[in-house]
Structures are given as C-alpha cells and as structure tokens.
Write a structure and sequence with these properties.
Blueprint (H helix, E strand, L loop, with lengths): L1 H13 L1 H21 L14 H12 L9 E7 L9 H17 L3 E5 L15 E8 L8 H8 L3 H5 L3 E6 L10 H18 L2 H29 L3 H31 L4 H28 L7 H32 L6 H17 L12 H11 L1 H15 L8 E2 L11 H13 L7 E6 L6 H13 L4 E4 L3 E2 L5 E8 L6 H20 L3 E5 L1 H35 L3 H26 L15 E2 L2 H29 L4 H28 L7 H33 L8 H6 L8 H12 L4 H4 L6
Parallel strand pairs: 5-11
Antiparallel strand pairs: 1-3, 1-4, 2-3, 6-9, 6-10, 7-9, 8-9
Helix pairs in contact: 1-2, 1-10, 1-11, 2-8, 2-11, 7-8, 7-21, 8-9, 8-11, 9-10, 9-11, 9-21, 10-11, 10-18, 10-20, 13-21, 14-19, 14-22, 16-17, 18-19, 18-20, 19-20, 19-22, 20-21, 20-22, 21-22
C-alpha cells in the first residue's frame, strides 16, 4: 500500500498540471450537471416492512386518484378576545378567504370550508376554526404565486383583529444554515494558519476540500431528482466532506513538511508523505465509508441514500488528498514552509558551506505533545479514571432519551407553523395535530358492516381516544378508512400505546373474521420509524464495529489497540448523546444553541451519530496511533513510541479536531432542527473523542499495556494481509536503493525546520 501510494504521490507531483486539470474538469462537469438538472420534486419517506407503510401502500392501491404526495396546509383562525369565530362578520371573513384560496392558484386540489355541515372544522368553544388546503403537487413544485396566495391569506382578517396562522408543508423551504457555517470555515482557516505558519500551506487543505465537496454536492444535486434524494442528503455530505477533506489534506501536508525537514527533495518528500500519511488517510477514509455505507442495513431508503451520498463524498476527499494535494505541493514550491523556517534553513546552509561542516538534522525537540504524553505516562491510572468518569457523568442524560420525529410542534415558538400548531392544540385538543389513519382491508370479511361497527366501537372505548370518525369505504367496497384523534400529543407515550392497542385489536379481528386493520398517518409512521431505529441500532453497531475492528487489526497488527479504539468510541458517542439530550430534550443552554423548543430527540440521531462519529473517531485513532506503531516498528520502546507519536501527531490531531468541530458547529445555525441537532451532536462528539478519548485515555491505556498493546498471535499475523501502513517496507526499499548508489541528493540531511 505504502509503495503504491508513494508512486502515486510522485506521479501527481511530476504531472501536477495534468492532475489539477483533471480535477478542475470534474468540478466543472459536476457544476454543469447540477445547474442543468431538474429540481427535486419529492422528499418521499418510506419505512419498508412496517405496518404504517403497508397501510400507506394499501391506500394508494385502493383509493386511486388520491395522491399522498401533494402538499397540504391549514389556515387557522382564532376570533378576537370575547368573540366567536361563528359570529356572522367573522364567519363571512373566513368564507371569503376560502373563496380567495380556491381562485388563487390552479395547483389547488381542495379547499375545505370550516363551516361545511358535512365536515365542520370549528372548535367546541366556537373560538377557533381552520381551512384545510390540499394541492395537486408536492411542496417543492409549488409556484411562487401559489405560495404568495397562501401566505397572504387572512391579511384582511388580521387587520380586523383575528389571529391567523398557517401550518403544514406547503410553505416548506430548503433549510438555511446561516452565517455560522461561513464562520466555521473561517475558523478552520485561522487554525491552519496558526498550525503551519504559512498562508500557502494553510490554503491548500481549504482549497482541495472545497473542490472535493464541490464535486460531491454538485453530483448529489444533479442526481437529486432522478434518485429522489432529500434536502438533508446534500447538507450531510457537505458537513462530512468539508471536515474530512480538510483533515486528510492537513495530515499529508504536515507529513510533507516533516519530510522536507529531513532533507528530502520536494518530489521525494511528496512521494513519502503520500506513501506514509496517505496510507493512514486511505484506511481512515475506509472506516468512515464503512460506517456511512453501513446505514443501508437499517433498510430505510432515505437513511441509506444519506449514508451512501456522504460516503461518496468521503471517497472523493481521500482521492483528492492522495492526488491533488501532491500536485498542489508541486505548485507551492518553497512557500509551503513558513518564511521564518526558510530563512533558518538558508542561514544554516550558508554557515555550513562557509565552514565546510556536514549538516545534520536537529535532535527531536520537546513540544506540547511530548510533555503531555509524559504527564499521562507518569499518571496513567489517574488520567484514565478522570476521562472515563467524566464522560460517564456527561452520558447520564442519555438514560432519559425520548425519541420521535419533529413536527410543527418542534418549530420555533415565533414561527407561524408553530403558532398554528398551538392554536389547533388549544382549540381541538393535543391529539388533533397527530391524527391516526385507520385502514380496514375487508376483502376476506364475511360481514363488512358489522366489522366496521365493531372496530370503531372498540376504538372509541379506549381511554386515549378523543374522536373516531365514521369509516369511509372506497368505490369497490373492499376497503374502508377512518380517522382516530388521540387525546394526547403526537409524541406522547399514551399515543404510542393507543397505536399498539388498535393493532392488537386488528390481530384479534383477523383471526376471528379475516378483516385486516392497519394504522398509518404521520404519527404512526414516526412511531414505527423510532421502533425500527431501536431494533437496528445493535445489529448496525455490531456490523460497523466488527468490520472496522478487522480493518484496524490489519493497520496496527494488534488485537488490544483496535479493542481499545472501539471501547473508547462507545464512551465518546454515549457522552455526546447525553449532551444532545441535555440541550435539545431538557433545554439546558438551549438559548445558547438556538433551541427555542425542547422536545424528543430525532429517532435517526442515535444511529446517525454512531455511524458518523465512529468513522471520524477512527480517523484520529489511525493518525495518532499509526505514528506510534511506526516508531515501535523502527525499534523504539513502547513508552518512547507513545512520546514520538505525540511529538509528531498531537499538534496536527488537535488542529484537525478544532477544524472539524468548527465545521460541524457551523451547522448549528441552521433553520432546520434536524441539521442543528446533527451539527451540535457531531461537534461535541468530536470534542469528546479527540481531546478526552484519543489524547488522554488512549495514551493512558497504552502506557498501562506496554508491549502487550502490540501483541498479535503469530497465526493471526500470518493470516492477516500486510499493507505496510507504517511504511516500513517502503523505507527499507528506498534506503536500499540509496545504499546501492541512489541519489545522494535525495537522501542528504539538513537542518530541521
């Protein structure tokens, strides 16, 4: 592996114009594809294998012409204080708005008058009413004229003193990340400048990461309509791609500068940097790809697409790092090193030329990384206990985790959808915003009328039910549909119990009469989704950790190091989940992070954090411990190897972690709760994993293990493939060539920079 990547690095350095041209052409091609692609018109959400999905599919089959993909809205009215919405002047105002909506757009499917006697939509106290609006197209296909017509509905009523708010997905817009995303990239640039002391060296990771992300996100945009990719797919890919793209480039540029400091010629230094640090990048990228692509085992299409799209962006980041970075290093020349170091090198060379002395490399100097590693090795038990106990305390809120999918009730309290949600809840009851849809398959039923009467009667007796609407059969008479309004809010445990009660009733009816009863609707879909996430978490964790464990055994030639890496990851991800619960569910420091409405944690959050954080955590494990392994293989003692690893890796890993945290934290400013939560969760998880687990717990454990850390049974050592990640075979090969009369120019020593 190292030898192969060494050849790639030298080739890219020599043929830098060709390599750069290829990547620029790919960026332009992807950009053209994104610009000319049709807009994605669907954000379809399906959960194969669940009862809610089977009911949804049955409705589409038995009720043709009733599209479930069309947008919908509710225009909610509340009468002025002391008045009724049914008062003649108020009722006339609302009826006039019904007429305006019908005439306001040709995309309208239906507009339901709240005063229609067949289906009244007025609260019992007579103060609140709502207009139901459905459209023939999805929210992404609505024209600006249609949106304006809906947004302006009720302006005259507002002027007359009525409260008018609009909810539903018809006004859904693409999420905005805000200025904080830009701030995250700026912070990354500042950290790179401080780390390298050179604007050119700092600019390379940013430029190459943006090129990789640009190609990835543009490709996703170009394929969004064809592959039905959701709006969050590109956002997650951008988030992950930026973070790993900058980090991977950072590690290779750092190794290149270290090789220059040892006296390598620029092309040779690029080859060795890609051969050594590039090997770590490839394997680190593989762990991220495994974790993201592994989301497919959950068998939820939207999650699979998000994972594969983000994994594709990571692959691009790896390819950019091992090809475009060495090409750009060729263009950068001596400017890749800071001006101060260039002057020091020049002065040392001139002095050596004047005195006739042979230049030798400076002895390795202590830095913050070596001092910290020695501190940890002096007190490994104390550091280990402090790290484990500290993260354990932070993880405590995770025991109170409540999961669900966000609805308008999770919107900021200042937004119109949230105000409409609250008005409906106050006027019609908490369960009105989460109605359940019952579907009865009567094909195998002997007495259909009796079955329907029994079903609705039994459901109405349930303590958690407010209203059951009369069943509405389809034209064929083989299916009936009804609504159940719960007494409790959609995300409550009582509503979840109600869904299971209705399904239990359906099982009884099927065994007695042959009729099948299903429960669907947004609330039931959310419940099924949460349960499927819970059921998939452990198998997914076992698959991802198992595959990565095998991969890390190949990298480190050890059993205990991969085991320690996996356990450390579990500790950091549970602590991060605890922090997410504390902020987004309990509301602690919610104002600081823009959380206006605490509520259940998104069902997808735990499994998504496991997938993404595991991959990123292994990045730091590979980059930091590979350097230790390299030193140990080259003859250093276990304690010396830990110090060497920190001497070369601590500063770079710290910078990489700060950059990744800054990039993820930039998405906390998103207007969408899901993106905000993912950004916070990933940022805090990287903080815990990089600075507590990898920088403290890992060296403490390695210090306690000593030589046992690098133990591998002989039979397993022979069975595992040797990819030479630490570059030992590459170094022996190159040193052998030098001994046989290779270029002395390439191997000469010089003053360390």
């Amino acid at each position: 592996m190292a030898t192969f990547l060494y050849s790639i690095g030298r080739f890219a350095f020599r043929r830098r114009r060709l390599v750069a041209l290829v990547w620029v052409a790919l960026l332009a091609l992807a950009g053209v594809g994104a610009a000319t692609a049709s807009t994605a018109t669907s954000n379809s959400f399906s959960i194969p294998g669940t009862e809610a999905q089977r009911a949804f599919d049955l409705l589409e089959e038995r009720y043709p012409g009733q599209s479930a993909d069309g947008a919908s809205a509710r225009v909610v009215f509340k009468a002025p204080e002391g008045e009724k919405i049914t008062a003649p002047e108020n009722a006339a105002e609302v009826s006039g708005i019904v007429k305006e909506l019908k005439e306001g757009s040709d995309q309208i499917a239906t507009v339901a008058d709240p005063f229609d006697k067949k289906a009244p939509a007025v609260s019992q106290d007579g103060t609140t009413a709502y207009i139901s609006v459905t459209y023939d197209v999805s929210s992404f296909e609505l024209t600006e004229e249609t949106r304006d017509s809906l947004e302006n509905a009720g302006n005259d009523a507002r002027e007359g003193g009525m409260t008018v708010e609009i909810g539903g997905d018809a006004l859904m817009v693409m999420p905005e990340t805000g200025i904080t995303e830009v701030i995250g990239v700026v912070v990354a640039g500042i950290v790179l400048v401080i780390t390298f002391g050179s604007l050119v060296a700092a600019g390379l990771p940013l430029i190459t990461a943006l090129i990789g992300v640009g190609i990835g996100v543009s490709t996703i945009t170009a394929l969004a309509s064809v592959m039905d990719l959701g709006s969050t797919t590109a956002t997650l890919a951008m988030m992950i791609g930026l973070a790993v793209g900058i980090d991977y480039a950072l590690f290779i540029v750092s190794r290149y500068r270290a090789e220059l400091a040892e006296g390598r010629e620029r092309e040779e230094a690029a080859g060795r940097a890609v051969g050594t640090a590039g090997s770590a990048v490839v394997f680190a990228g593989l762990t991220v790809v495994i974790a993201l692509a592994g989301l497919a085992v959950v068998n939820i299409p939207i999650l699979t697409k998000m994972g594969l799209a983000a994994a594709g962006t990571v692959v691009l980041a790896v390819l950019v790092a091992i090809t475009l970075i060495p090409a750009f290093l060729g263009f950068a020349g001596e400017r890749i090193v800071s001006r101060k170091d260039r002057k020091a090198r020049k002065a040392a060379a001139e002095q050596a030329a004047a005195t006739g002395e042979v230049l030798v490399a400076d002895a390795p100097r202590d830095n913050g990384g070596t001092r910290w590693s020695r501190f940890v090795q002096r007190r490994p038990v104390m550091v280990l206990l402090a790290g484990v106990i500290g993260l354990g305390v932070i993880a405590i809120p995770a025991t109170s985790l409540e999961m669900g999918l966000p609805d308008d009730g999770a919107q900021p309290t200042s937004s119109s959808p949230r105000k409409a949600y609250d008005l409906l809840s106050d006027g019609f009851g908490p369960g009105f915003n989460g109605p359940l849809v019952g579907v009865v398959d009567l094909k195998n039923s002997d007495d259909q009328d009796a079955v329907l009467q029994r079903i609705t009667g039994e459901i109405q007796k349930n303590d958690h039910v407010a209203i059951v609407t009369p069943p509405a059969p389809n034209q064929a008479g083989d299916t009936a549909m009804f609504q159940v309004i719960p007494k409790d809010r959609p995300n409550s445990t009582e509503t979840e119990t109600l869904v299971h009660d209705i399904r239990d009733l359906g099982d009884t009816l099927k065994s007695e009469d042959g009729a099948e009863v299903y429960v669907t609707g947004a609330t039931a879909m959310n419940i099924d989704f949460s349960e499927k996430m819970n059921d998939a978490l452990l198998p997914y964790l076992a698959l991802v950790v198992g595959l990565a464990f095998l991969l890390l055994m190949v990298v480190f030639r050890s059993v205990l190091v991969p085991l320690k890496a996996a356990l450390g990851f579990l500790l950091s991800v549970v602590a991060a989940l605890g922090a997410v619960v504390a902020v987004f569910q309990w509301g602690w420091l919610g104002g600081l992070f823009g959380v206006e409405q605490p509520g259940p944690i998104m069902s997808v959050m735990p499994i998504l954090m496991v997938g993404v954080v595991f991959g990123l955590a292994m990045d730091y494990e590979v980059f930091l411990v590979t350097r230790m392994r390299e030193a140990y293989v080259h003859g250093e003692s276990p304690a010396q190897a830990i110090t060497t690893g920190f001497r070369h890796g601590a500063r770079v890993v710290t910078a990489a972690a700060v950059i990744m945290i800054a990039v993820f934290a930039g998405f906390i400013g998103s207007s969408e709760q899901m993106i905000k939560m993912i950004g916070f969760g990933l940022a805090i998880a990287v903080f815990f994993d990089a600075f507590v687990v990898r920088m403290a717990i890992v060296p403490a454990v390695l210090a306690l293990l000593g030589k046992r850390a690098w133990w591998l049974p002989r039979w397993l050592d022979r069975a595992l493939p040797d990819f030479d990640v630490e570059g030992d075979k590459l170094r022996k090969k190159l040193d052998g060539k030098a001994a046989e009369g290779g270029s002395g120019k390439e191997e000469r020593e010089t003053v360390s920079v």
